[in-house]
Amino acid sequence: MIEIKPGKIKDTTVSVPGSKSYTHRMLIAAALSDGRCNIKNYLRSEDTLLTLSCLRQIGTEIREETGHVNIQGAGGKFKPADHPIDLGNSGSSMRLLTAVVALGQGPYKLTGTGRMRQRPIQDLLDSLIQMGIDARSLNNDGCPPVEVSGTKIKGGKINIDCRISSQFLSAVLLIAPFAEEPVEINVTGGPVSKPYIDMTLDVMQSFGLTVNRCGYSQFEITNGQKYQAGDYAVVPDYSQAGYFWAAAAITGRSIKVKYTSKDTRQGDVRFAECLKMMGCDVRYDKDGIQVSGRPLTAISVDMADMPDMVPTLAVVAAFAEGTTVIENVAHLKAKESDRLSVVAEELSKMGIEAECSNTGLIIKGGKPKGAVIDTYHDHRIAMSFALAGLKTPGTRIKDEMCVKKSFPNFWEVFEQLLE
Questions:
Q1: Within this chain, do residues 161 and 27 fall inside the same structural domain, yes or no?
Q2: Active site amino acids
């Protein structure tokens, strides 16, 4: 457990690691490529290491070096796995790799933590089955562990429901070029978190592939395309940047995150605009986005396209005047924790009126008091509630090292805020 002791916060500039979402996708794209790839600025965290471990387990040659990783792609020709593939509680790894192993020589069993075994994946399995892939939930409950048999992918027309996760679509998109026929995808529900689909398409385009699309409802991928080997770089993670913009909002200081800009596929960049709506000054400089805190007022906001920022905005809302309403984020119930219930529960411990519905949160701002915060092994709960401690004495965070899942050096960067 760590206690956050309020101190004098300084105007400062910080750096955040490479994007977790882009790292997962680039590691996989490199493994699917036709040769050696060098990926710079990749995020080395618990989740991304699970993706790397799986790729190694199915025969990918990987060499990690300081600041970058070398991957020898084999055109999606993967080897059998002698043992079950443990993906911990990395939802991105589980969903994306469930599709990827279908290109290998099965069967493959993918499993994870107790929480992972509660996270739905049936909509993805149904789509893979439509492509001629033998994929099933071993407990017949629509959740991991799953078993996938490597085979030739037929392709053709498939339907996919993305109301729970856009990663189901991303998974199918990533493997579609290896199908025997062109793939036509029809999205029947959702998708939630649309910017994450854009990230997948951005990575595919960077690796030389073409995807024809009609908005977020229809996608066509010509078979026979190849992921091209080369040198690639991962952009900064805007969800991690959001913690420091939020710190500025809560403390009234000015904090810039290096190398961030409006020109990004990451939907979390819109979090800065949310803070602007609450009263902060936001400046888009050439070397980064800077947020300067001002007196905060409540807002109503649809956060469907930036769900990772919901706990962070909720903590900021606790310091704002009025009642903040966060809408259209029902899919947060299936994250590392039920983030809607958890955020409401932990804010209530701090004396803040907060309640969750099936689709969002309602937070009445006030003056938070110190409390011991349970993190539920959820990295985003730990990092978001740490921000409250910058202004609220007595804030203590349990299991503070759960941040290793996405931001291993979070506490070091956090310390840079204090004079």
A1: yes
A2: 308
